[in-house]
Amino acid sequence: GRNVPWRAAGISLYATGTSAISFIAIPAKSFATNWHLLAQNVVALFATAVVAILIIPLIRRLNIMSVYHYLEMRFHPSIRTVSSGINIVLQLGGRMSIVNFLPSLALAEVTGISVVYSILLMGLVTIVYTLLGGMKAVIWTDVLQVIVMLGGAFFAIGYVIWHVDGGPSGFLAAAQADQKMDIFNWAFDIRQPTIWGFLLFAVVDIITYPKDQVMMQRVLATKNPKEAGWSVWTLAAIEVPGSLTFFGIGTALYVFYKQNPEKMNPLLNVDATFPHFIAAELPVGITGLIIAGIFAASMSTLSSCMNSVAPLVSVDFYEKFAKNPTQAKSVRLAEWMTVGAGVIGVGTALSLSQINIQSALDKSWELLGLLGGGFAGCYGLGMFTRRANWQGAIIGVIGSLIITFACWRVGLVNPVFYQPLAIGGCILVGYLASYFFPPPQQSLLGLTGFDRRKSS
Length: 456
Prior knowledge:
Elements (H helix, E strand, L loop, with lengths): L5 H12 L2 H13 L5 H23 L8 H6 L2 H35 L3 H48 L4 H11 L17 H13 L5 H8 L4 H35 L13 H9 L2 H38 L5 H26 L7 H25 L5 H21 L7 H17 L22
């Protein structure tokens, strides 16, 4: 019905992008290293202004249900189909598995319940409420889950800091002495998370923002283009303080275990650092609050993934290829796909639990960049050039895949930069290749930043 209030849509945007990867993997990363990755959020805050003013209204005015429909309107039906299919694979095989697995790791550490049973429990509950309530249930439970999640995170960082020697001042002195709170890395080294790399990341994120159906679904559910823009401003207002809290938790844990090395299990995987602290150090009632926050973070993303896969299958495949599609059958297929996506996500999480992964954050970046970056570049080609055509877009995607896999094989760049590398490769190769073919023949009104459609 496109009647979701912009505040709820914005909070849901934050909830969807904040999962157990944020609640567990980011503290683990800052525990092991520093705050260099936080610079990405700081830079992205400025990029949000461009997205809210230029990109979001452009896409929202098209009144589409699948963001990949734009690629058909701008380029060719085949690009829409393949990109939508790849996104479905990424959600089912990558994102859902990680956000289901990590909180189960925490619950197993705290309660002794096996990771397998925890994955099954969380998957089942999320499938049920997503199936019964649909998009509105996902958005409004996201709002509640953000309250629980950030409440748990704020309490966690406060508790750890007050229990290190010297309290807040002791925490700051110890963290700064070991350079654990350094944010901006000014080195010219693409194998490190540097500020220059994040500036590049922000640019490619701006020009390819509609690439993620999971996030854009909230924007498309608002009343009009203006409210769609305000939903993104809401996301920006929450994201930086939220990220700062998660990075702070990891640093506080570093200081605590440096002062109390006998309490740290050296055999633990780095992603288990925060769950280990929860189980060993927190009072029983507080443990429940933190675990609730972890599960709220994960279930909000899990439900969003399910609810994005379902319309992609029904709209991009059934309604497009069925001989006599009907709205009733499309909705019923979406319902079945919600269940199917949940079951597959549980299955891939169970498989992940049998593999030793050093950093879930790095693996998620690798998967997203290697498989999803190429087609994301098509949005940049489509929205910011008039000359790019469908032949050039396809060549750009192929070239992007070759470039990214080659860099991955030799370890040329830091995993966080795989996605901007893939996107940049697609845009550059695709734009140059477009000159070997005729320019687009269809009207570009409302499809590029140069040909704006004023109607809403």
